[in-house]
Amino acid sequence: MKTLLIVWHSLTGGSRQMAEAAADGARADSAVALRLLQAREAGPEDLLAADAYLFVAPENLATMAGLMKDFFDRCYYPVLERIQGRPYATMVCAGSDGQGAVRQIERICTGWRLKAVAPALIVCTHAQTPQAILAPKTIGADDLARCRELGAALAGGLALGVF
């Protein structure tokens, strides 16, 4: 059985909701095992044990959040040259455009030689004031549906051997 690993970090709940929606979509395919881990709990052994990845992070100060960066920092060299060719996708919960976080994750995945199988999914909350940025987030139904679809597509492609 193939395994999809979803690694996520969330401070205000937006990225968590996105990761959980993607996991719900992935669970629809019973031919794929799913692991949903917070970034602070995930490590190199989790990456090595998985066949595909979904990385879900908030945008903080126009880049990926620090605890997600910590996950990549802890895992980068231990799995280097051991996971190349595996499929991945990215989701970002952003207050503005999210492109900085996406670029960072894509550069790391390029170094690992992973294969992007979907465009990055960015959900923009338009949080621009300190109060709005720190407030708990509620992701809308349409955006959660897009997250579920991405999770289902990753699991389906993995189960069918498309990637």
> Terminal Cα separation, in Å?
14 Å
Shape: globular
* Structure summary, number of beta strands: 7
Mean pLDDT score: 97
Proper CATH architecture: 3-Layer(aba) Sandwich
- Biggest pleated-sheet summary: 7 strands, mixed
Q: How many separate helices?
A: 6
- What's the CATH first level? Alpha Beta
Secondary-structure-based class equals alpha/beta
CATH superfamily: Flavodoxin domain
Into how many domains do the coordinates divide?
Answer: 1
**Poorly predicted segments:** none
Gyration radius (Cα, Å) is 15 Å
Which percent range describes the beta-strand content?
15-25%
CATH topology descriptor? Rossmann fold
* Helix content, binned percent: 40-55%
H and E order:
EHEHEEHEHEEHH
Could you explain the architecture of this structure?
Helix content is 45%, strand content 24%. With 163 residues, it is α/β, with parallel strands linked by helices. The chain has one domain (2-160): Flavodoxin domain (Rossmann fold, 3-Layer(aba) Sandwich). The longest helix has 20 residues, at 141-160. The model has no long low-confidence stretch (mean pLDDT 97).
What are the SSEs and their pairings?
Blueprint: E1 2-8, H1 14-27, E2 32-38, H2 44-49, E3 52-60, E4 63-64, H3 66-79, E5 87-94, H4 99-112, E6 115-116, E7 121-124, H5 130-134, H6 141-160
Parallel strand pairs: 1-2, 1-3, 3-5, 5-6, 5-7
Antiparallel strand pairs: 3-4
Helix pairs in contact: 1-6
Give a quick rundown of the structure:
The chain is α/β, with parallel strands linked by helices and 163 residues long. It contains 6 helices and 7 strands.
